[in-house]
Structures are given as C-alpha cells and as structure tokens.
Amino acid sequence: MTAASTPQTDYFGLTIPFMHFIGLVPESIAPAYARASLPWRADLANSRGDVHGGTLMSVLDFTLSAAARGSADGKEGMATIDMNTSFLSPGTGDLVIEARCLRKGASIAFCEGEVRRADGELVARATATFKIIRRRPGSD
C-alpha cells in the first residue's frame, strides 16, 4: 500500500496528514482534555536518537488544540497564536501527550500540556494560546 492509498487517521474528527505522517495516535478527547501517543521511530529522532524537539512541539500543538476543541463535532477549529515549550529530558521510547484547556472564552483558548515517557518521566511541557475559529454551515 502506498502512502497515497493509506487510510488517514481520524484525529478527533479531523484529517491531519502531517500527524498521520509522523504516526501520532489519538487516544481520547473530552471537554477540556485530550490524550495522544507517539510510538518511537528512528526517522523521528535527532542525532542522539531521541525524538526531535520539532516533532515534540508538533504533537503538543495538535493535542493542546484538541483539548481546546474538547470534542470531535467539527464546529470549531483552532489557530495557534502562541506556544511556549520547555524541554526537560530526552524523548526516548514511546511517548504520551496529555493536554488540558485551562480557560476558553468567546474567541481565545488557553491550554497546557505535557509529553511523558513510558516510565512517567516528564519530557516536555507547553502552554499555548489559540484563536477559536467557528465553522459555519457551508463554509470551508
């Protein structure tokens, strides 16, 4: 099966080719919460064999925005305004990403999340601000 014919993963109601490409596995979504996992792969690693920081930031960005959406109904989208990430230890092995929406207003959502190794060690922590994009029937 070629990459073009590989079925896309459902990312809580969205098709996100880049998350599919890096192998992010969506696990659960609830109001103000989302969880995903990232199985380790050599092609996601940096020169030391740890998951690359850019990959960590990408999966955090998605998972935090999913927590802000809080559902898979497709009525809201999120656009990242700002994200701050701190890297605390190497991302070795399979990783778990958890995110929470701390506050959601009419147009802005504030979220925080973390990446942990399978042994529970904290790998990275992030905070992000998102602009809420309301989808209207018949719009793109």
From TrEMBL:
One of its GO terms (molecular function) is fatty acyl-CoA hydrolase activity. Gene3D superfamilies: Hotdog Thioesterase. InterPro entries: ACOT13 (IPR039298), HotDog_dom_sf (IPR029069), PAAI_dom (IPR003736), Thioestr_dom (IPR006683). Keywords: Hydrolase. Residues 49-124 form the Thioesterase domain. The keyword Protease does not apply. Transmembrane segments: none annotated. It comes from the Bacteria. The keyword Hydrolase applies. Pfam families: 4HBT. Belongs to the thioesterase PaaI family. This is PaaI family thioesterase.
